[in-house]
Design brief:
By secondary structure, this protein is α+β, with helices and mostly antiparallel strands. 24% of the residues lie in helices and 36% in strands. The protein folds into 2 domains: 64 residues; 105 residues, no CATH class. The strands form 2 sheets. An 8-stranded antiparallel beta barrel has the order 5-6-7-8-9-10-11-12. The termini are far apart.
Amino acid sequence: MGLAFEPGQESGHRTVGKTGVVSGFLSAMILAPEDGIGVFAFSNTGGFDNRGTPAPLASALLRHVLGLPGQAIRTGIPPRPETWGELCGWYSPDPGPVTNLFTRALFGAGAEVTVRGAHLMLKPLTPMPAMRRGARLYPDDPGDPAVFRAELSEFGLSVPVVFSGESEDGTTTRLLIDLFSFRKRPDVRNPRRWANGVAAAGAVALAVRHGLHHDA
């Protein structure tokens, strides 16, 4: 079971932990080994939202005990908009069998990275309304413009988001969101574009049908 622990960090303090999410049986454990501190939180209410879920509570308690600010988002790092064009696009799960069902449950067909209101945004292509609204990406490393944190206020969480390049020319090819990994795909294959096209065609068909009925 030691291999199941998830590494992380809270403002430079190394952490390891694990969460459990089954409706009615929610738990979170987060440890800061070098600091000799551990936090456990349990709840019998809540689901895939912030109503009673222990994960954000455990993180907040650990930060409090460590004497850290309550908010993990770092707002003092200046953005690097000259890098955004390379980061924007559609990222989807790797092909093949899905071994982590939470990938499909939370992110559906993957995620889009776009610019909205002078901010870089992460927008999962998912049927879950709370996730579909998207999250702002905040720079999280002054020395690396590809490292961010996403604020998921609906869930009371902030998660690390990292872009990486694996191609020979060093272009961005992969998006890492906490424990999830996605590969960049051509925009022409983005399922949102097809969905919008189908919706538009349906709206036109309804309008034509309504007009024919009215004329009759």
